Structure formats: C-alpha cells, structure tokens
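Troubleshooting: if your tokenizer reports a length mismatch, compare your output against this known-good record of 141 residues.
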Amino acid sequence: MPNTFKVILDNNIIISHLMTNRVNIIDDIIRLAIAKKIQIYISTPILNELKIALQYPKIKSRLLPNKAAKFMAWYKYDTQLITVTASLNTCRDPKDNKFLELAKTVMADYIITGDQDLLVLGSFGDTQIVRPSEFAKIESV
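Known-good structure output:
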C-alpha cells in the first residue's frame, strides 16, 4: 500500500471516542483506515488493556454500547495485530512503554494520544507522537 501511514492509537483517545455521540477525529481516522490511507497497528497488551479499561464501572457506565460494540468489532478485525519484538523502558509511565514497543516493532509513523507521558516525548525514533487534533492537521483528515 503506497503512501500508507502506520498508526498506533492510544487507548485513552479510543475510550473518549466511545463515550460521546459527537463525530470526532477518531471517526475520520477510521475512514482513513477503511480507505487504506493508514494502517492501524495493535498488540495483544494494548488490546487487553483496552478490554479491561472498558469494564471499569466508571467507564462502562458512560460508554455508548452500540458504538463500543461496533468499534471493537472493527478494531479487532480490521487492524493489524502484531507480536511485539521490542522491550523498552523509555516512558516516564512504564505502562505506556507498550505503545513505544509497538511503534519500534512496526516502525510506526504516528502514535496518536492524549497522554502527556507520551506527548512529552514528541517523537520516538522516526515515530511522531501527536494529539488527535495535530494528526488531523498533518494528514488533512
């Protein structure tokens, strides 16, 4: 797929997306993925973290059930599940290293996040770490 950007979504922006009826940048990112303009990568640790977080009572009570179910079906089957080969201790929050490890393994172009522990890095190797709004400007979604 020429000109296909490799993208990793942080779980915090996914969860925020699943708690609102508003159309937002994640909807645009999904459209880009369906159009094969970007490829979204996940790893088992990232997917497991998301599944666990979606069961927390504080989050579960605010989810839009149909939106969450539809998204998770798409996310599990239309993204690229990768076995991570890197092991890192780079991020100031060790729980966020799994995103950097995946980025290193797939040589990702972007990590899209709202997490300050990742954003403070700005980049990781050739991977740009950006907010959803920044990604929208960069990729003109």
